[in-house]
Specification:
529 residues, 21 helices, 0% strand, globular, membrane, transmembrane, Protein RFT1 homolog, transmembrane helix, RFT1
Length: 529
């Protein structure tokens, strides 16, 4: 597949994934606002922090390394061996579910049954849901490698909608069921997700469309583990790369979910405060997750396909290098401007957003400060996602292994900083620690990118430099909206709130007009791709 075709399909995949994340986050956003009126903060804290952490940890440790390794390189490979390797995620998931399930049940603090009933059933259900989801991993990787955009959108949309309908129904009818509600909803979510992928490939394989596309797998039976005479069960090169990524993924999970591990294992916040933190965290990450994560996932595939892992820039096809450098520069500019916009306007509108969303329970206390800090953290998330996406797509096995040592040291420092900052600043300390963590990771990735392109004429890191005129507009917008918040928000009635919102809308419009006038290359890239 030509690099230009890969770019086009990757851009469509990123756009579709972004829309999918919009659906997922908006639904979660609305669901939290709804359940706040029916359920306690403590129950929401246990579900969204404790049990979701169990599920995400099992899934991440069991499959992340396999995804990274099996999506590297060309889609033309021995798919029998790749599929065999991917099925190893299931026993690995069973292992982690059993070990971590015992930890969650017997070593961690158990919530008060009168406030959060059926905790044990919740732990079993969320651990089981992780195993069920891993059953669909070979199907997911095969679809992602061949850029099946529509399948991913439909599968995850159906699963999210099904989960939300069941949750809302049970919350209204049986609020006393407690964790049974979220356990059943989680099991339904993963079951629908896996079945969508299985049903699609049962219909697709052997069809005229599959034959026309020369799809590498001809029968459904080929998607199951199989032995080939006189050949190894798996591709050992992929297996060794998986092991390298596994060591890295273990550390990355600690860094990604670090604050939840600190909350869960060190009890620095009670379950009610954990619930408030998680609600604010979901609100703060609404834009970050539905834009930055799809870009990172999709363009990792693009860079891995266009450039060969482990080769220097001189040994690559120069047309592909030029395209990759141009795309990286524009992606950096895109996420930087999105991050700056959220940081600037998020500061002045955090309290108003929380007051509208959850009332005084969220808008009083630490809630507004949490969301303001998160607005800054979004900027770090934006840049880190793209720089690491390129770095991980190009690193050879030895470089990945070396980076693991960096991640190990960073994990230890991050956990220590989280613990101390939380004691000093409460839940805000978690976000400050995350900013520090992302800053270090960005420094490492940008150093790698600079070193990679130093022997070429391409300088993609210039994408991190916005135009002076646009920077000036951002500064003026920050000052004007901050004064507007002091004068009109948020206890002076709805008319004052509308004036504050109108002020922000005018500043945002001025920012966007300046962006369209000064960043013409980026605008053309977004429109064309």
């Amino acid at each position: 597949m030509a690099a230009q075709d890969v770019l086009g399909q990757t851009a469509r995949l990123a756009s579709s994934s972004a829309l999918l994340q919009v659906l997922f986050r908006v639904v979660t956003f609305g669901l939290n606002a709804f359940t706040l009126r029916y359920l306690s903060r403590e129950l929401i804290g246990v579900v969204n922090v404790r049990l979701t952490l169990l599920y995400s940890t099992v899934v991440f440790l069991a499959r992340e390394a396999f995804r990274r390794a099996c999506l590297s390189g060309s889609a033309k490979r021995n798919w029998t061996k790749t599929i065999n390797l991917l099925w190893l995620t299931v026993p690995l998931g069973v292992f982690w579910s059993l070990i971590l399930g015992l930890v969650w049940l017997h070593l961690l603090e158990v919530p008060d049954p009168s406030v959060v009933p059926h905790y044990q059933a919740g732990v079993v259900a969320f651990g089981l849901s992780a195993i069920i989801e891993l059953l669909g991993e070979p199907f997911w990787v095969l679809a992602q490698a061949h850029l099946f955009v529509r399948l991913k959108v439909i599968a995850e949309s159906l699963s999210v909608v099904s989960k939300c309908i069941l949750t809302v129904t049970l919350v209204i009818l049986y609020p006393h069921w407690g964790l049974y509600i979220f356990s059943l909803a989680q099991l339904l979510y993963v079951s629908v997700l896996v079945m969508c992928y299985v049903i699609y490939f049962v219909i697709f394989l052997g069809s005229p469309e599959a034959t026309k596309k020369s799809f590498p797998v001809a029968r459904v039976k080929a998607l199951l583990p199989s032995f080939v005479e006189d050949e190894t069960f798996v591709n050992w090169k992929e297996a060794r790369l998986t092991w390298s990524f596994f060591k890295q993924s273990f550390l990355k999970q600690i860094l990604t979910e670090g604050e939840r591990y600190v909350m869960t294992f060190l009890n620095v916040l009670n379950f009610g405060d954990q619930g408030v933190y998680d609600i604010v965290n979901n609100l703060g990450s609404l834009v970050a997750r539905f834009i930055f994560l799809p870009i990172e996932e999709s363009f990792y595939v693009f860079f891995a396909k266009v450039l060969e892992r482990g080769k220097t820039v001189k040994d690559q096809k120069q047309d592909d290098v030029a395209m990759a450098a141009n795309v990286l520069e524009l992606l950096l500019k895109l996420v930087l401007l999105i991050g700056l916009t959220i940081t600037v306007f998020g500061y002045a509108y955090s309290q108003l957003a929380l007051d509208i969303y959850g009332g005084s329970m969220l808008s009083s206390g630490t809630g507004p400060d949490l969301l303001r800090c998160y607005s800054l953290y979004v900027l770090f998330l934006a840049v880190n996602g793209v720089t690491e996406c390129f770095t991980f797509a190009l690193m050879c096995k030895e470089e990945v292994d070396r980076y693991n040592f960096v991640m190990l040291a960073l994990s230890f420092i991050f956990l220590c900083i989280s613990y101390f900052l939380t004691h000093w600043y409460g839940s805000v300390g978690f976000i400050l620690a995350n900013c520090f963590n992302m800053g270090i990771r960005i420094a490492h990735s940008t150093h790698y990118i600079h070193h990679y392109f130093r022997e070429s004429t391409h300088r993609p890191l210039t994408g991190l430099l916005p135009s002076p005129a646009l920077l000036l507009v951002y500064i003026l917008s920050a000052v004007v909206t901050a004064f507007s918040e002091v004068l009109f928000c948020c206890d002076k009635g709805w008319m004052a709130r509308l004036i504050h919102i109108s002020t922000g809308a005018l500043c945002l419009a001025a920012t966007l007009v300046t962006m369209f006038c000064t960043e013409t290359k980026l605008i053309h890239f977004v429109r064309s791709q």
